[in-house]
Amino acid sequence: MFLTRWQETLHHDGSARYVTPGSHPIGSTVTVRLRTGRATPLEQVYLRSAPDGEEDATPMQREPGDGPACWWRAELRLTTPRTDYRFYLVTAEGTWWYSAAGLTRHNVTDATDFKLLAGAQTPGWVRDSIFYQIFPDTFCDGDPSNNVRSGEWLCYGRPVVARGWDDLPLGRGQGHGVEFFGGDLAGIAQRLDYLQNLGVTALYLNPIFTSPSNHRYDIADFTAVDPHLGGDEALIALRQALDARGMRLVLDITPNHCSMIHPWFVAAQADPAAPTAEYFIFDEHPARYVSWMGVRSLPKLNYRSAALREVMYAGQDAILRRWLRPPFRIDGWRLDVANMMGRFGSTLLTHKIGRGIRRAVKEENPDAYLLGEHYFDGTPYLQGDELDASMNYQGFAFPLLAWLSGFDLTGAPFGGWTRRPPLPTEALAAQWRAYLAALPWDIALQQFNLLGTHDTPRVTTLLDGDEARLRVAATLLMTFPGVPSIYYGDEIGLSGGGDPDNRRPMIWDEARWNTARRTLFQRLIALRRGSPALREGGFQVLHAAGDTIAFLREAADERLIVVARRADDGLRAVPVGAAALPDGARLRELLDGGEATVTGDLLPLAGLDGAGAQVWRVVE
Question: Of 137, 373, 491, 547, which residue is the catalytic one?
Fold first, then answer.
């Protein structure tokens, strides 16, 4: 649909310029605002909601003023935990609907409505954070005395192998899971000064609980830190070291499955009448049982069992509660394969278990961050009553990397990680907007954004080491709505393909670092941490065509325009009229210090002749 000038300037999101900020209890009233350009032909605007399930329309009032933007406002009463709303626009040419999915002439389903949470229990520290993901075995060897010795045990029939720090992972089918490099929690504690200097404020660690493998996603004891990482005492020491620096800690756990050598499963296989037998799903005892993706070493947990629910999260001494308490006091959980938990055959308990986990975690610490792994569409879990966030593969990372590199990372069912023609810029913007539209704004601001993890090829490898495109990726990571996470080593140029090559040991020899890349990350992190617009501001796509995308981030006292391009598409000035900026508005570029003036609704792109990114602040 072709949009006219006033339609392009139409905008609303859940940020503070558009919705009364703060946490609002059920029964309270908030102000909702809608922006469009000054030359709007709107005769009337209605705020459409559905209190108690029945449709309601509130006439909006046009605010006085003579600036470039025209504002409409109305009061909205919050009668339920989540209030959905959209706008009905009346013009001389007919009526329009405006929802989170955009502007349409036809009425749309409620699924596309804007969403506002009442009394949202969100962890306030998260949106101000910079996360750093660490794969413990390959980050830093702080205590060689606890290193694994070759042949020390068998990992599902294969002897474990001790590797040198400068060795590369052997690859799947060779050393996968059984090779250990010696990283531990003491090593992480010893490198906190490095992380703090980078600008990191929070850590996310892959599993640290007792396990036979180096990745530890086959947990054999949910109640103990692996002794080869230093045991419980090392976690306590790390907690204290983080406290001294004001840093946070999120741990990874597998509530969907455990190791086949876990005592629960060993007892269940030995005796079908064992108390823990109901924790699992046996098709034929003892040999045929349900496991994660058919991997026999990972028996799936059966949440039809009330006893299992009690021990995992519901009981006062449950596992998910225990680690939130002193002396460990972790700040949140990352739930592995959260989309699979409580789901098998006719058993569809995923959301029930998710809500139960949320109640338990928030009872222990209302400020805890509850993050879930979801490779696909995690938005049904992100409506305010389950997860605080998901790892934002589809809503940020995968479309961005497909746009920059052509790699489709959607996974094995579609041919694996395959290089195809790059994603069109219009499609990048559409996917970003679609996933944002499905979320309450409070949730969007705490989504876990990333460029790579232990499950994906490294961004350096995907982009063939192209520093210009890496600058684009890093800039967008730090400027997109949500909380950024850096996978260890990306900031110094660590490369690697698919698992386990993407888990190479961290390089601590500074002579081998990409120091320019690290400096870029430091500058971008500092920019984000100092910017209210980037931490909690609104989001509006201004331009998406050719090889260039531009969007607005705006807070009450700051407006930023982010411009990113993957190649020179001949565009020398980006259209910014949709931001309702007046001609003559002056902007300053925050990374390289240039200045520009808006003329004819265009922002000149001096200094951006090829792939690169700019962040412009409106100064007057």
Answer: 373
